[in-house]
Amino acid sequence: MAKELKVEEKLKHLYELQKVDSKITEIEILKGELPMEVRDLEDSIVAMEQRIEKQKGQLEDFQGQISMYNANISEAEGLIKRYEKQLDEVKNNREYDALTKELELARLDIQLAEKRIRDTTGKLESKEETVSANEAKLVSKREDLELKKKELEEIISKTEAEEEKLGKKRMRSQKKIDTKLYDRYERIRKQYKNGLAIVHVERESCGGCFNSIPPQTQLEITLRQRIISCEHCGRILVDDNIQTSLEKLKAKEEA
Ligand SMILES: [Zn+2]
Fold it and tell me: 39, 52, 109, 41: which is closest to 80 by C-alpha?
């Protein structure tokens, strides 16, 4: 800008730029959280899928163990049949005692295997419950993800045009402000999460940090002869009427 602008005009341009930036920030906030939520959900779905996969592996292990115990039972039953048959043909006490001992052992084996089957079945059933609860959670997470993705797509398609428009508007606004002042504006703006560098005087206080402004300073702000920063937060202060003045200035520019 070759021509030196009056302070009042500088303030109006700054104020206009701030309005554009605030709208851009609003869109960023709106979009900013959703992609993160979508990513988080996708991660937690993958983790849940892996957990279920692992738990299903444990189910198979339990089933394998139960089959093995059943095989042990069949084997012991086969032995028992054989020993009982042999008992009918024993020739002496020694043989009889030996067979009775074997029979006893085989029956014990069966009891042990049956106990293990009961225990493992208990574990299997509780694991099955866990798996089905996790599968239900997974379904609802997937539904949630679909919703969030759709929401994000809608926002993106809705805001794309507006963002482009705001981007152009911002460039036009920036051109009206000299580099030094623009840098100052950007420096203040980056300090604050809400990106506010230009604030109104609200109830005799700074609209940014809410600290009160001395009456003399308030008066100076309305005069618009000097760029005044809040002594507490450094934000540039403008009076309430700047919006109306800005509209008048715009009408003049467009005429
Ligand atoms: Zn302040």
Answer: 109
